[in-house]
Amino acid sequence: MSLAHTAAEYMLSDALLPDRKGPRLKALRLELPLDRMVKFVAVGSPLLLMSLAFAQEFSSGSPISCFCPSNFSIRQAAYVDSSCWDSLVHHEQDESGHYKMKSLWPHKVLPYSLLALAVAMYLPVLLWQYAAVPALSSDLLFIISELDKSYNRAIRLVQHMLKIRQESSDPHVFWDELEKARKERYFEFPLLERYLACKQRSHSLVATYLLRNSLLLLFTSATYLYLGHFHLDIFFQEEFSCSIKTGLLHDETHIPDLITCRLTSLSVFQIVSLSSVAIYTLLVPVIIYNLTRLCRWDKRLLSIYEMLPAFDLLSRKMLGCPINDLNVILLFLRANISELISFSWLSVLCALKDMTTQKHNIDTVIDFMTLLAGLEPSKPKHLAQGMCDENP
Fold it and tell me: What is the sign, positive or negative, of the torsion defined by CA atoms of 226, 232, 236, 237?
């Protein structure tokens, strides 16, 4: 019998979680996986397209090629290219014979507009980093620590029950202590439960998260408006008429008023425009999905911890409207599930609990670990009958 008791003690000792020493939770994730993906794509894609635009400009030289008269010198031809690129205005004759001008400036500012877009898309990330991450980090550290400690308390209680069973010759003592542990709620967690309930009434984290994703949608909509209003109008225009009677050529009478120039970078302009539309169109459903996750509870994590004695955040129906800080914290606890060591142990116990034939006798981790330690989960009939005879 002592060998069985020793094996039970070893089993319970192995079930205890080790104390964390040194730097705690260095790999804590303070961004959800989908948010990180949105950040990399929303910020990285404009920078990648900007490098493509600069590479085309450096490799091809001048972004335009003007068809100057044959009697122009090399210096005059270079001046025409420079002047037309600086002005970048298309002179078009209407039906009445008057010339109207259309600016082609989006070609000139293309790399810088992409840089501005990348900076704008990074602003929501900075907002989250400075407004939410410090508080979120503290919340996660405290909650993860308390959940692991509460699991250890339950295991130590089973160790104590096992010690009582070994040292007491009267079986009634053990069952009295076990009933007290189940009914008198010695191991309540008022600090943790009240902290979680307090977070349910707080809205700073969820407001910052909503603002982050709303800004992403706003900047995406602004990108659509910019591309649709400015890029679409000149999307297929490869040639334009440029007025060159300025500067050195202002008084020249033998040159035409307008010459034709061709945009050599039009293909890059089109690729960048179409790529931007496609990328942000694919990101919009992801951002909307991130927002919809705040409209429902992720109750699986808390339901697992219902196995802890007196931890009944769900059974007492403390979860109301999901748009609050507690729901955001639960999402990040799910993302940091590898740091929550007790969750894997309790998940295994829940799976074993569902397969056991004595479900009605197993409510908490104490009941299950008591069963694994070789003790009956319910009072034997002859002891229960004896107690009834003593208390008619």
Answer: negative
